[in-house]
Amino acid sequence: MRALRFPILAACCATAISCTPLFSQDDTKSNMSSFQDDVSFMKKHTPIVMLQSGDAAVALAPDYQGRVMTSTIDHEGGPSFGWINRKVIAAGLLSEEDRKGKLEEHIYIFGGEERFWLGPEGGQFALYFQPGTKFDFADWRAPAAIDTEPFELVSQSDSSAEFKRDCEITNYSGTRLEMGIQRTVSLLDGSALAKTLNIESVPAGIKAVGYETDNRLTNRGDQAWTEETGMPSIWLLGMYNPSPSTTIVIPFKSGDDSDLGPRVNDTYFGKVPPEYITVEDDVLFFKGDGTRRGKIGVSPQRSKGVAGSYDADGKVLTIVAYNVQDAPSGFVNSMWEHQEEPFVGDVINAYNDGSPAPSEAPLGPFYELETSSPAAALGPGETMRHIQRTLHLQGSEADLDPIAKRLFGVSLEEIKASKTQ
């Protein structure tokens, strides 16, 4: 197992580092409900495991692959930070006949602010396309093991829960991958929150919730996973409530493209219009307003191991950090095409949901922050580990601003002044 480290804990990270919208701002005001309301609703349709420490709480769904559905800074009356798709949850799993012609034929979008997935999505080693199919949505399917099949709840306490799942998935090249998955979700206490933020203590005026997920992938087969067979990766995706005042912020290493490659990949679903993204020398701003579908990626050469967002109206700073580790086999490429470089992919992604074209409905809308592990070059019985921490901080801008500067290298005023607002 490779060495693990959170770069935002390092001292070096304490230094500073055309198309019109399809909806009006009034159409995209955040419909964030309360945590208590969301949990009450979900409990009517699926088992929920609650983690709680003081006012902070996290709700997990074993039947939805142990995903973090939502979290809050105040379990009695606080906001619900995860985006919840009530319509899909209430409908439940459909029969094969009822799924035909519906989105559920391809994926069940239950929502949730951190779910366990596997990469790559596209390419010759894709896990979401069967051998011989085309790289278009008609043939795209989320594997059942990470879409509709439950994870086993192994153990739980007030502050953590452990899940596991064994499965087999055949990739686009026909390789059968026998996998063992372990996932532990743990609430972060005050000292862990402060350590993640690289400060002595969380200011008294800030309300916070944070959790860590420890995700492990094991090769249960008798053949090694290689560049010839395909190597999967751990892929974590978080779905959050969009709003006109929400801006995604991703700091990255500055430097010439000839040395580090492009600063951002903004062509996943067609090039992102300039009204939705601002790319500077060492940071980018991307709209999280849920008005237009678009996705971006940051390479491992550029990544600083952290991404986040700021909701200026709600005064909520969200931080997502992962364990940066050596990647001798690279990172999987999820582009929907036959790839010349299947292991030259991104490590951080962000997605703004919304209408893909005039008159077409959005999936949510929501916005996403995503991180990926390196490609799992594992021999039989070997394990890879990918750890992610998610924090939500709510407070005055005077208290939040130093944290934004420390982690993202920009002030809240700079975030709000970007043309993504």
Please characterize this protein's 3D structure.
The chain has a 10-stranded antiparallel beta sheet with strand order 5-6-7-8-18-15-14-10-12-11. A 5-stranded antiparallel beta sheet has the order 4-9-17-16-13, with no helix packed on it. The longest helix has 12 residues, at 397-408. The protein is mainly beta and 421 residues long. The protein is globular, with a radius of gyration of 20 Å. A hairpin with a 3-residue loop joins β11 (277-279) and β12 (283-287). The chain has 7 helices and 18 strands. Residues 7-30 have low confidence and may be disordered. Helix content is 12%, strand content 30%.
The global form is globular
Mean pLDDT: 92
Structural class: mainly beta
* N-to-C CA distance: 42 Å
Strand content: 25-35%
* Record field, number of beta strands: 18
User: Approximately how much helix is present in the residues?
Assistant: 10-25%
Rounded Rg? 20 Å
Strand order in the sheet with the most strands: 5-6-7-8-18-15-14-10-12-11
Low-confidence stretches: 7-30
How would you spell out the order of helices and strands? HEEEHHEEEEHEEEHEEEEEEEEHH
Largest sheet: 10 strands, antiparallel
